[in-house]
Amino acid sequence: MRARPTPPTLGTVTVTKGCPAGPPVHEHRHGGSPMPELFIGGQWTAAADGEVREIRCPADGTPVATVDEAGAADAAAAVTAARAAFDDGPWPRTPAAERGRLLLRVADLLERDKDTYARAESLDTGKRFVESRYDMDDIANCFRYFGDLVASGNDGRVVDTGQPEVDSRVVYEPVGVCSLITPWNYPLLQTAWKVAPAVGAGDTFVLKPSELTPHTAILLMRTLTEAGLPDGVANLVLGAGGAVGAPLTTDERVDLVSFTGGLATGRRIMAAAAPTVKKIALELGGKNPNLVFADTDFDTAVDYALMAVFLHSGQVCSAGARLLVDDELHDDFVDEIVRRARAIRLGGPFDEDARSGPLISAEHRDKVEKYVAAGLAEGAVLRCGGERPDDPRLRDGFFYLPTVLDECSPGMSVIRDESFGPVLTVERFRTEEEAVALANDTVYGLAAGVWTQSVERSHRVAARLRAGTVWINDFHPYVPQAEWGGMKQSGVGRELGPAGLAEYQEAKHIWRNTAPRPQRWFE
Ligand code: NDP
């Protein structure tokens, strides 16, 4: 963080260089004049204290953009705007069909601007451009799903009280002002899972994306405005979690905090929200087991095991980072994983031959390195990786080689803790019973994979796994129609699906006595 240079070029975000290839993604300008990046009450606003932050591309460390860095005063102003828009603005009282139609318009605009969004996301995260484009498709689908769900009417229900003179209804109303706090790994995707249902439900919100990846959140404010969302419904503050995220979790005018991020931050947010008894929705980490039984299709299971853990360099909450493999299959299976992991080509977002990118930051790579070192000290066997690449092409980025740690066992820190990097741990099992026990031996419960050709076994094991999502002979797919979230310490509540809309609604029971008469209770 540094003070804005004088004279201030307020809010000009010019993506000038950064990762190899590509002209500037965009310049944030409004009516030809420079435009700041905080979005409060329908206005593009500079940070109150004039701070800015430089965003760097993780693939080569070069500066990508300079954006406004909000503080507590900006967070408070954003909550004021969101509160006013909820209490006095039109959006919460707009018919559901109209709210749904707006979400469908947003989906169309996201599709129109897909490449702009994808390039911005890739420059912020270092993610391959092709993967960012897939993400944009998923994001448009998310808006479309919630648009259809809301437009199709979620009007509540009539309750049969058994009393003919009573007209009783349950209606679903917006929950109020929502603080939406999102991480850097899938910046716009995680944001869409919150913004689409919040807007669809009739809420107003303040969004705080990760300080490292602000670009697509800025673009989204423009898209929501273009789609016709009234002023004050969507508000954006950029900045560090402690400075600008924390006030959004304690402000008594906020009704709900929806957070995606790490377990430690989730615990802090839960505690911060307690004094004002806010509703909370938490999507936290995972330490996701991928169970491979001996009766599986070997080549397919190897292929998916690689994708399960090394996709986006392991920076995926549902990464299949714990391989549990049948003892009978272990040696051949791990040999093949290692052979193929060594061949994964790393590179920047616009390197068409690359199959995986960098880690998000130098600090995050340090964390992954410490995690691997701890595993080795505890007795894990390094089969490949375990270091930075020596390729001069990758020298300036935060790259780390795909790593396989074999002969791991339950007590080890590499089994307990999330690395959020390209690190696969391998454990053996001998029976189905043991496989299930190992898989469930974690504080997390986000996702799990099961590989077997036995339908009976797949159902038996899926039923016993304590995870919010279980994939059988697959890994990572999801659809917006199906709920996503974690059991145990992987979270509270669900995103996506009908439950993902319900998080942003309050149920209200309205009871009307159509023929009231004195009861004479106290006579
Ligand atoms: P963090 O928990 O560090 O941060 C997530 C967000 O919370 C960021 O916007 C961060 O701000 C903000 N934040 C940090 N401290 C506070 C605070 N005290 N009050 C309010 N907000 C705060 O996670 P990462 O960004 O490092 O993301 C990686 C983690 O997220 C992984 O552990 C991963 O498992 C988890 N995750 C879970 C997902 C799921 O669906 N369950 C999906 C994606 C990630 P800033 O970064 O700007 O400081």
Automatic annotation (TrEMBL):
<keyword id="KW-0520">NAD</keyword>
<feature type="region of interest" description="Disordered">
    <location>
        <begin position="1"/>
        <end position="20"/>
    </location>
</feature>
<comment type="pathway">
    <text>Amine and polyamine biosynthesis; betaine biosynthesis via choline pathway; betaine from betaine aldehyde: step 1/1.</text>
</comment>
<feature type="domain" description="Aldehyde dehydrogenase">
    <location>
        <begin position="44"/>
        <end position="510"/>
    </location>
</feature>
<dbReference type="InterPro" id="IPR029510">
    <property type="entry name" value="Ald_DH_CS_GLU"/>
</dbReference>
<dbReference type="InterPro" id="IPR015590">
    <property type="entry name" value="Aldehyde_DH_dom"/>
</dbReference>
<keyword id="KW-0560">Oxidoreductase</keyword>
<dbReference type="InterPro" id="IPR016163">
    <property type="entry name" value="Ald_DH_C"/>
</dbReference>
<dbReference type="InterPro" id="IPR016162">
    <property type="entry name" value="Ald_DH_N"/>
</dbReference>
<feature type="active site">
    <location>
        <position position="283"/>
    </location>
</feature>
<dbReference type="Pfam" id="PF00171">
    <property type="entry name" value="Aldedh"/>
</dbReference>
<dbReference type="InterPro" id="IPR016160">
    <property type="entry name" value="Ald_DH_CS_CYS"/>
</dbReference>
<dbReference type="InterPro" id="IPR016161">
    <property type="entry name" value="Ald_DH/histidinol_DH"/>
</dbReference>
<dbReference type="GO" id="GO:0008802">
    <property type="term" value="F:betaine-aldehyde dehydrogenase (NAD+) activity"/>
</dbReference>
<comment type="similarity">
    <text>Belongs to the aldehyde dehydrogenase family.</text>
</comment>
<protein>
    <submittedName>
        <fullName>Betaine aldehyde dehydrogenase</fullName>
        <ecNumber>1.2.1.8</ecNumber>
    </submittedName>
</protein>
